[in-house]
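2024-03-11 09:14:02 INFO worker-7 job=invfold-0412 stage=load source=structure_tokens
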């Protein structure tokens, strides 16, 4: 989407971090913004901040785990702006732990936010975008953790891999409708996503995979994200990539070796399959 001026963007997880940064970048280029977030207080501050910068912005409280909440937020957006052109499914939470020790209620929580939150956004807004018949753009926030399996981050990896695969699918499906899709896969970014672990339903402390001892995952997450790049850099790059209709929006060039290693592993195991006589093609008469 080369020109976002006067387009309406709906952004989940929009009260902070990457979501707010993308909203700010789009707004600076003339888009009108609907911020959606579960934290009403932080949402009000974010909305006020955008307005102070001259951006036409509004906010709506929304729990992406709840399809009805997302649908209500969509209606609110249409009531306020009449249309929607860009959907940024960005809301996400963090959860780590050693396999075999993670409470299933915490698993369901992260799946509901990180995966089903994206699904709810897509399923809610695709009919709206289609009915408008003006095209549109969907950006789903995944992570480099959607391409790189990291020990101790099983739940986070699982949801982010799912978002990547889901995005690859809907990209094919929605292209004929004029709806473009990108999947945002940043590595470490300076946000407070690590703090979301405090909201895990079980409230339990789970061990790290290396020593199987109780682990302060919030401390681990904070230490990691503090080494990351600024969210505004990610946001500006993401909007630039949207203008070029780039599907994978990646950051951190040094991570290319991780992608290459995974690709080589896949190729190696496919070669093993191809070299096995049981999979040889049956001659035709």
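2024-03-11 09:14:09 INFO worker-7 stage=emit residues=285
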């Amino acid at each position: 989407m080369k020109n976002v001026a006067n387009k309406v963007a709906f952004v989940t997880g929009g009260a902070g971090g990457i979501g707010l940064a993308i909203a700010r970048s789009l707004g600076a280029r003339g888009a009108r913004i609907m911020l959606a977030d579960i934290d009403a207080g932080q949402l009000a501050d974010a909305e006020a901040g955008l307005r102070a910068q001259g951006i036409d912005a509004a906010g709506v409280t929304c729990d992406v785990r709840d399809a009805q909440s997302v649908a209500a937020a969509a209606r609110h957006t249409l009531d306020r702006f009449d249309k929607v052109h860009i959907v940024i499914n960005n809301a996400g939470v963090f959860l780590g732990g050693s396999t075999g020790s993670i409470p299933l209620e915490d698993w369901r929580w992260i799946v509901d936010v990180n995966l089903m939150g994206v699904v709810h956004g897509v399923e809610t807004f695709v009919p709206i975008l289609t009915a408008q018949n003006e095209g549109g753009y969907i950006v789903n926030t995944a992570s480099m953790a959607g391409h790189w399996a990291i020990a101790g981050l099983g739940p986070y990896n699982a949801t982010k891999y799912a978002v990547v695969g889901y995005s690859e699918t809907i990209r094919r499906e929605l292209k004929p409708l004029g709806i473009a899709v990108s999947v945002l896969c940043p590595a470490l970014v300076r946000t407070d996503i690590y703090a979301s672990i405090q909201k895990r339903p079980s409230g339990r402390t789970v061990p790290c995979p290396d020593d199987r001892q109780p682990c302060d995952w919030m401390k681990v997450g904070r230490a990691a994200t503090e080494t990351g790049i600024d969210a505004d850099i990610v946001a500006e790059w993401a909007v630039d990539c949207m203008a070029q209709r780039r599907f994978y929006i990646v950051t951190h060039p040094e991570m290319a070796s991780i992608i290459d290693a995974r690709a080589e592993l896949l190729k190696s195991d496919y070669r093993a399959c191809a070299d096995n006589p049981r999979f040889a093609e049956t001659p035709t008469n």
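2024-03-11 09:14:09 INFO worker-7 stage=report msg="The chain has one domain: 8-254."
2024-03-11 09:14:10 INFO worker-7 job finished
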